[in-house]
Amino acid sequence: MPRNRGKGSGFEKKIASRYKRAGYFIERNKVKNGTEIDIIAKKKRQKKLVIETKAGKQVVTSSVIRKLAEVARSIKGKPVLVIGPRVSLTKPAKKEAKKRNIRIRKVYC
Fold it and tell me: What range(s) does the Restriction endonuclease type IV Mrr domain occupy (predicted)?
C-alpha cells in the first residue's frame, strides 16, 4: 500500500538534505522490523542516527518515543527526533525521551 505523502514528506526531505550536507550517507523510508524509519544517517566511524521527523501541528506522545527507541536499539543506532516549530511533546513523552537518551531537535525551515 503506498504511503500517504503529506506535509511531513517535504519536511523529511529538508532534514535529510541537511544531514547529507553535513557529510552523512542518507537512507529514507526504510522498513526495519516492521517499522518504517524516516531517515537513517550514517557517517564513517560514527554510530548511525535513526531519525524520526514530525511536522505540522501535532502532539508527540510517549508511544512515539518508545517506538523510536526500540527500532533504533534493534539496528544499533542512536535515536533522534526532529520536530517542526508547531509540534509539541506531552510531558510523559518528554520524560520518556530523557529516560531513553533520545535527542530532540526543533527545526525552523
Answer: 8-103
| pLDDT confidence of residue 32 | 80
Q: How big is the chain, counted in residues?
A: 109
Instruction: For residue 107, give the C-alpha cell.
Output: 527545526
Does 11-106 carry CATH code 3.65.10.10? no
With beta carbons less than 8 A apart as the criterion, state whether 29 and 36 touch. Answer: yes
pLDDT tens by residue, 14-56:
999 999 999 999 999 988 878 899 999 999 988 999 999 999 9
Domain ranges (residues) in the chain = 11-106
Contact 81, 104 (CB under 8 A): yes
